[in-house]
Amino acid sequence: MNNNKTKPVLTKVDFVRRYQRGQFGNRAPTWDNLSQFLLSDYKGLVHIRNRVAGGMTWYNVPADLVVAHWRLALSMNYYPRQLYISAMCPTERTVFQGEVRRGLCGLDLHYTTVRRPMREALSEEEHNVSGIIAISLLRYYLCSNSYEWLSYLLDAYQDHVIEFTTLDTNWGTVSGYNTVFWECRAY
To answer: What is the distance between the alpha carbons of residues 98 and 106, in angstroms, rounded to a whole number?
Structure first.
């Protein structure tokens, strides 16, 4: 149930549209398509992401190889409108990442401390905690701005999972946050 009358996120396409507008808070710099990325003149590593739930993703792609990776994705039967590009999170600075949601007994947290992209990190090490332990870990790792925003997201999107990465530094589109919020999805 969503008491704040916030529209639930029911599809990946809807999520990405709202994510790119900044609705879910601090995020990676993101481009809607290959043309936008090429116009940006961005030179760092990127992550070619997918608007298809569970779809493939390409991590740590150098800017000069984005076109080749984009073509590879198209050769794998993805359509251009299914793909978008984000600046690669500096995973070497990751201290904590995972997914959190409200459960029957408070917060449920699925997390890892492995310094790799989340899919890879969770396959290497994963932990599940709930209640006061989940809250304690989140308060320990997230800066106060990030924790406050996470609390807002959990209240506004009550039947959703919030996916995040917390770094040992501030990074992303909103200054003063050490946590990037990657996804908000209904469960």
So the answer is: 16
- Global confidence as pTM: 0.92
Q: Tens digits of per-residue pLDDT, 119-147?
A: 999 999 999 999 999 999 999 999 999 99
**What is the residue extent of each domain of the chain?**
30-87, 91-186
Mean pLDDT of the chain: 95
Distance CA 62, CA 36 (A): 16
